[in-house]
């Protein structure tokens, strides 16, 4: 509860306490309102910034005490996703979507839980059950991933493009779209998408690594001009070295691996092992 809300509640309680005995019920109602506000704030904290495992424990207890409350069920399902417990999250989101107050956003999150557990047909079924008028970033992001898994490239590209336009933070979906292009062998398009992702989020290392893979697949063994730490530079050199070796450019690959070992601020076991294997 913020300072102003608490102050207002205290003043209200003081006024009610000064009233006739008939005010006792009003005092109890005011106390219950304070509890609801406090609990709502705690739920928000648990769902966003609390330790994921602690949040799971909190919402598990809360849903046990109030099993009919959909907000607590949502909190448990979302916390299980944050905690990396996707299999349990599937059951939790399924329970949410059977609730009479379930929304299309809940059904969208169920599709996401199915995707995290590689249940692609179930994910498609969950998305197909959502009306086409429900146009959200998460819905189209999941639609793109499901189409990708089915190698339905036209639909995947269309959904990725729509999703990108529905968010102010598109780096993640651009990276996914680029990886899709990378797996199809469209390396030039993949490179453009990874570069665009990094314009939005310069610290997204996954996009940096994928960008290096796309360049390496085109036999471009120069590191891209993007912000990187010394440790990231070593890792990217290692990725580029492996890409070169994969294309039988062994001498170039060996040189890149040596650069990775020399660049790394700590002992780079993987790169050292790769060099030993080449020797």
From TrEMBL:
Protein name: Tetratricopeptide repeat protein
InterPro entries attached to this UniProt entry: TPR-like_helical_dom_sf, TPR_rpt
TPR repeat boundaries on the chain: 171-204
SMART domains, per the entry: TPR (SM00028)
Domain of life where this protein originates: Bacteria
KW Iron (keyword) present: no
Organism: Rubellimicrobium roseum
Entry keywords, A to Z: TPR repeat
Transmembrane intervals: none
Entry annotated with the keyword GTP-binding: no
Short name of any one Pfam family annotated for the protein: TPR_19
């Amino acid at each position: 509860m913020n300072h102003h809300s608490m102050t207002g509640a205290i003043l209200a309680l003081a006024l009610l306490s000064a009233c006739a005995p008939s005010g006792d019920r009003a005092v109890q109602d005011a106390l219950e309102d304070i509890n609801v506000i406090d609990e709502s704030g705690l739920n928000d904290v648990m769902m966003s910034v609390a330790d994921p495992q602690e949040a799971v424990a909190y919402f598990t207890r809360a849903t046990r005490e109030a099993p009919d409350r959909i907000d607590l069920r949502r909190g448990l399902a979302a916390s299980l996703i944050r905690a990396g417990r996707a299999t349990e999250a599937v059951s939790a989101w399924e329970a949410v979507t059977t609730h009479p107050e379930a929304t299309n956003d809940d059904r969208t999150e169920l599709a996401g839980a199915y995707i995290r557990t590689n249940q692609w047909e179930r994910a498609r079924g969950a998305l197909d059950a959502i009306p086409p008028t429900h146009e959200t970033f998460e819905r189209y992001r999941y639609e793109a991933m499901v189409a990708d898994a089915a190698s339905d490239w036209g639909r995947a590209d269309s959904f990725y493009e729509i999703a990108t336009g529905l968010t102010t933070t598109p780096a993640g979906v651009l990276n996914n779209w680029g990886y899709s292009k990378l797996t199809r062998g469209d390396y030039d398009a993949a490179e453009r998408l990874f570069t665009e992702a990094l314009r939005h989020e310069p610290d997204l290392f996954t996009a940096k690594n994928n960008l290096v893979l796309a360049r390496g697949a085109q036999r471009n063994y120069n590191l891209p001009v993007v912000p990187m730490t010394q440790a990231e530079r070593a890792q990217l050199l290692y990725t580029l070295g492996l890409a070169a070796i994969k294309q039988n450019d062994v001498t170039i690959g060996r040189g890149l691996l040596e650069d990775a070992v020399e660049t790394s601020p700590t002992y780079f076991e993987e790169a050292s092992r790769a060099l030993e294997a080449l020797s």
